Amino acid sequence: MAIVNLQNVTYQYPLTSSPALRDVSLQINEGEFVAVVGPNGAGKSTLCYTLAGFVPHFFKGELTGTVEVAGSETHSSTLNEWVMNVGLAFQNPFNQISGAKYTVFEEIAFGLENIGVPRDEMISRVEDAMKLTDISDLADRSPYSLSGGQQQRVALTSILVMQPKVLVLDEPTSQMDPIGTREVFGVIRKMAEQGMTVILVEHKVEWIAQFADRVIALKDGEVLLEGTPGEVLTSPLVEESGFGISRYTSVARKAQKLALWKKHKLPVTLDEATEGFAHPLTPNPSPERRGEQ
Amino acid sequence: MKIEISDLHFTYPTGVQALRGISLTIESGEQVAIVGQNGSGKTTLVKHLNGLLRPTSGIVRIGGWDTKDHSVAKLARRVGYVFQNPDEQLFSKNVGTEVAFGPRNMGLDGDQVQSLVQDALVMTELSDKTETNPYDLSATWRKMVALASVISMDTDIVIFDEPTTGQDAMNIERIANVIKALRSRGKTVLTITHDIDFCAENFTRVIALSQGKILLDGNANDVLGQEEVLAVTYVEPPQLTRLGKRLGFRNTVRTQDEFLTELERYS
Q: What is the ipTM of this complex?
């Protein structure tokens, strides 16, 4: 069942001359993990703001078409009602952190305080969420004393703790170290498997390919292409339009010209590339890796 | 201009020991990437190079100058530093003024300032945006303005703190081109990055930090091939390095060319 339903959505920020989103229609099912890719300026963050109700309630401007999440329609809801359904982690964690709290623990509890969750439940939810994202050791630090990657984990945790039906993430790992990134993708995947719907804006193609169910490619405010990671991320249209593609795909495309990649389909993940390139020498068995299931 | 760091320790006022004995030498014209886990001390380390931080103990020398004896303003003539977040360093009303601020502040005359500004704008593909307010530009172009405003100071050493964060494929290519241009002019470039594929494609020496110490330091292929050691500091080898390992290549590969050459040998 579609929990997110966008019909012919066009949106223009105030004082701008052209729309940031143009006639976007999308249906996203409950528990689906959808990645949104696109060059800068494609409308990815605007889509996040639209799903989170910031468009039009906070940014104003002109929104046409319908935005429906979990049965409510954005025009007929207030932002206060909307936050119960949708959680958004900002691109820059610095803009998300409240500035009103002295410790990470209190920062993560901030949203729950605002919706009046009882103290005992609040403490246990905060502790559980911090365990999930592996930041329990940061509990007593000031949110502003953390590194960029640590701040991003705090920002993500303070949304997860709200247990929204729909989780919207705008480049949540942009400042994280590589293995930390993969771990966070694993956490997000787990949330989706538990029934949370996830919409993730991301440039890190390798992890999208491995973890997401579906990819939506945006360009100039329009949906250029959507489909499985394999379909979208190997499409020549996507590469020509300035999207990032995985090194597995680009090297296989070059190898294809040298007749060293024999398959018709190009790889997007390490496993697909390994399988496709497997050559007469005995390949190494794939090592067991942390964070991968 | 040589960078010499010996037994550098740094402890923040909060008591966090960010650096615990770093020693390294970087020769003039080297292209070095610094990688490592969040909180491993990367930014703390580079902030010692232009005097934003002073050692708790140990010595940092830039072209023979002990950073303890020189002001940040003086060191700024030798070391340029591009912040991770461009919004922390941009303040002028248009791109041209922003990029001219550094060289003007160094007391250069009008003609010299003009020629440095033009050069930096060409390198960063901003020539058509000189009249624009930086805050009317997209985040990607603001990043290029931040690069240009440091490049225009024509320092021998240029530091980039996570230049590719939040950038799309096209802008990452632009940034790689800037680094190439600086290399061809003999500049020393130090870059902190989590983008390990970008690191593999643009740097010849890689330093991995872990908990305030050097974990690995050497030729890019030697460092990036060590999957188990890198995992200690939450870094993984580049995509093609991992693929090469899986396929049983004897040599570590990190770029597409290296991968294809190795692939041909086995086919």
A: 0.89
- Residue A19 preceded by cis peptide, ω within 30: no
Superfamily grouping for domain B3-239: P-loop containing nucleotide triphosphate hydrolases (3.40.50.300)
A128 phi and psi angles, rounded to 5 deg? -65, -45
Contact flag A277-B247 (C-beta cutoff 8 Å): yes
Nearest CA in chain B to A175: B165
| B110 and chain A in contact, CB less than 8 A | no
Q: Does the pLDDT of residue A283 top 50, yes or no?
A: no
As for how many domains chain A has, the answer is 3
Q: Does B259 touch chain A (CB under 8 A)?
A: yes
* Of residues B170, B172, B240, nearest to A251 (C-beta): B240
Q: Is it the case that residue B152 has pLDDT exceeding 80?
A: yes
Of the candidates A236, A256, A287, which is a domain's last residue? A236
Q: Is the pLDDT of residue A281 over 90?
A: no
Domain boundaries, chain B: 3-239, 240-267
Q: How far off is chain A from B113, nearest CA to CA, in Å?
A: 31
Per the prediction, chain A carries an average pLDDT of 90
pLDDT tens for residues A36-62?
A: 999 988 999 999 999 999 999 999 999
Chain A CB contacts of B36 under 8 Å are: 177
- Residue A242: in which H helix or E strand, if any? none
A70 and A177 part of one domain: yes
User: Does residue B250 sit at the A interface (CB-CB below 8 Å)?
Assistant: no
Residue B196 sits at the chain A interface (C-beta within 8 Å): yes
SS3 category, A64: strand
Query: Locate tokens 């995509």: which residue?
Result: B239
Instruction: Identify the residue with better confidence: A288 or A21.
Output: A21
Query: Is A46 inside a domain boundary?
Result: yes
Q: Annotate A53-87 with b (16+ C-beta within 10 A) or e (fewer).
A: bbbbbeeebebebebbbbebebeebeeeebbebbb
Can you give the residue range of the structural domain that contains A253?
Answer: 246-279
Residues A206 and A151 in one domain: no
The pLDDT tens digits for B65-94 are 999 999 999 999 999 999 988 888 888 899
Question: B245 by DSSP, 3-state: which?
Answer: helix
**Cβ(B47)–Cβ(B204) under 8 Å?**
no
Of B38, B84, B168, nearest to A176 by CB-CB distance is B38
pLDDT of A292 reads 41
Does residue A293 form part of some domain? no
In this predicted model, what pLDDT tens digit does every residue of B19-74 receive, in sequence order?
999 999 999 999 999 999 988 999 999 999 999 999 999 999 999 999 999 999 99
Interface test with A, best of B14, B135, B144, B239 (most A CBs within 10 A): B239
- Cα A33 from Cα A28, distance rounded (Å): 9
Query: In terms of CA atoms, which chain A residue is nearest residue B256?
Result: A251
Q: Same domain, yes or no, for A24 and A154? A: no
Same-domain pairing of A158 and A261: no
B219 interfaces chain A, CB cutoff of 8 Å: no
